[in-house]
Every structure is written in structure tokens, then in C-alpha cells.
Design goal:
The protein is of the alpha/beta class and 287 residues long. Helices cover 43% and strands 16% of the residues. The protein has a seven-stranded mixed sheet with strand order 4-3-2-1-5-6-7, with helices on both faces. The radius of gyration is 20 Å and the shape is globular.
């Protein structure tokens, strides 16, 4: 394999976008402000001792119905078009893909988010991802959302790392994910993953990738001292490798860090290939 595959895996809210995706137009269309919506969701979660993710999804459907807002798949995608992205995000993917190609790597991009898949699919960057792992709804014959299909919280985010690791795209497949596959036969070993996150909900994934030889990057909102402090605590606690301001423009910190990691991954791959070839030659000569 001349061009090893490298997986770049991104959280969405706070990582590629400065706010929760519902806050750009959906909550406003409900006639609520964001603090009202999230407070109501938190109260429901605590009163019912329920998943915060499932509660926000229920509240989205409930409040939209009360406000007379369509809850079809296409409606969520339209709200997704209004999501703002951090500086440089739109150009990021082509820049990194080209850089990877230049040094002999195949780059794949994935989303691993507690946000809504249907909204992400409405963004201008949706086409850049091989797979979007995120919360989603079930739909009736009229394409109207009726029930949560997938709920992604901070702990079960880790399952999608294993799906990427083993090359399993389907969320429903819980058989192949548990089958044993030797590490050297997996499409994307953990040591060839780079995980991007912004806070506490990403800690299990960032820690897992780092512990297994990959690299984790905590990003923070530019000019936000509190967010920077939160991100820096992650590196001090040995949960991430790097901390960067969320500016994805060429020659900014994120770009420099990622291109350096890619170069190291390619050198490591070449070194491992060289070791394997010498071992194989030794085996052949001693038959």
C-alpha cells in the first residue's frame, strides 16, 4: 500500500463552528433565545433523569410543532445552510487533501458530533466528509421527523472511532464492529487518526486516539480567554497533544500542526514498511 489512509475526525459545534448549530436560525425561528431552549432541555433531562441528547431532540420536534415549523429532513437541511463556520474551514479540506496527496497520503474526513446530522448535511462543507456520524431522526412516509434514530453523546462517540478503524460505515451494524480484526489489517489504525474537538464532550475520543498512537487537537474560539483556558487544561491533563486557536486558514497554527503530523505519519509508515520488508526477506532466506 503506497498511500496509507489518514482519518481526520471532527466534532462540529465549537470545533468547526463557533456555536451550537441550532442557535444560528432554528431556535430563533421558534421564537426563543438559545438560553431558553437549552435551559428547558436541561430541566427536562434532570426531571426525567434522561439523556440530555434525547431531550434536546425531543424538544426540537415539540417546539417546532408548537411554532408551526416543518420538521422534514429538507427543513433541517435549510436551517443547516445558515450555520456559520470558523475562518478557513471552507478552504481547509482541499488544502489538506492536496498536501496529503503531495507527500503520499490519502486523506479522509469524518464528522463525529452530538449535533444533528440533517443540519450538517445542509452546510456547504457536507460533501467533504466520507461519513457524518451524528444525531438523526427517523422519518415517516412524508419525510417528517417522528422519533430519534441516533443519539450521540460524549461516551458513545467512541464507537464511531472503531467503525472508522475497521472500515464500517453503517450505524446499525453491531456485528462486524465486535468481530476480531488484527490491527495491521484494519483500514485506518488509530495511529493514523487525528481528532479535533473543543471541550469536555470530546474528552473520551481525544484521549482514546492519543492513547492508541494517534493525535488529538483541542481547538478554542479565537479571542476567548475562557475557552482557551479550558482547552489548555486538556493538554495539561495529558488528554490531547496540541491546543490551537480555531482558525483553519493556511499557515495558521492548526494547519502547521496538522501538516507536521501528516509528515510524521508518512515517515512512520515508510519506516514500518521498511522493517516489515527486512523481516519478510529474512523469513524467505531461512526457509
Amino acid at each position: 500500500m503506497k498511500n496509507p489512509t489518514i482519518a481526520l475526525i471532527y466534532d462540529f459545534d465549537g470545533t468547526l463552528s463557533p456555536k451550537n448549530m441550532q442557535e444560528f436560525s432554528f431556535i430563533e425561528a421558534l421564537g426563543m433565545d438559545s438560553s431558553q431552549f437549552w435551559e428547558k432541555s436541561d430541566v427536562l433531562s434532570k426531571e426525567q433523569d434522561a439523556s440530555g441528547i434525547l431531550c434536546y431532540m425531543k424538544l426540537m420536534l415539540e417546539e417546532a410543532n408548537h411554532a408551526g415549523i416543518p420538521v422534514q429532513r429538507s427543513s433541517f437541511a435549510k436551517f443547516g445552510k445558515n450555520i456559520e463556520l470558523y475562518k478557513g474551514v471552507k478552504e481547509w479540506f482541499s488544502l489538506i487533501n492536496e498536501y496529503g496527496k503531495k507527500i503520499g497520503l490519502k486523506i479522509e474526513h469524518y464528522i463525529n458530533s452530538s449535533g444533528l446530522k440533517e443540519m450538517i448535511e445542509g452546510t456547504s462543507i457536507a460533501k467533504e466528509f466520507k461519513k457524518i456520524y451524528a444525531c438523526s431522526f427517523l422519518y415517516d412516509v412524508n419525510d417528517v421527523a417522528i422519533w430519534p434514530a441516533v443519539a450521540v453523546d460524549y461516551t458513545n462517540k467512541t464507537q464511531f472511532l472503531f467503525k472508522i478503524n475497521k472500515g464500517i460505515e453503517e450505524v446499525w451494524d453491531n456485528k462486524r464492529i465486535n468481530e476480531y480484526v488484527p490491527e495491521n489489517e484494519r483500514p485506518v489504525p488509530f495511529k493514523r487518526m487525528i481528532y479535533f474537538g473543543d471541550g469536555e464532550t470530546d474528552i473520551p475520543c481525544m484521549k482514546m486516539v492519543k492513547q492508541n498512537g494517534g493525535y488529538s487537537i483541542a481547538v478554542y474560539r479565537p479571542n476567548d480567554a475562557n475557552k482557551r483556558k479550558i482547552a489548555e487544561k486538556l493538554i495539561l491533563d495529558d488528554r490531547v497533544n496540541f491546543v490551537c486557536q480555531a482558525d483553519y486558514s493556511q499557515n495558521k497554527d492548526v494547519f502547521k500542526v496538522v501538516t507536521t503530523i501528516l509528515e510524521k505519519m508518512k515517515r512512520d509508515f515508510d519506516f514500518d514498511t521498511l522493517l516489515a520488508s527486512h523481516l519478510e526477506n529474512a523469513k524467505k532466506s531461512n526457509l
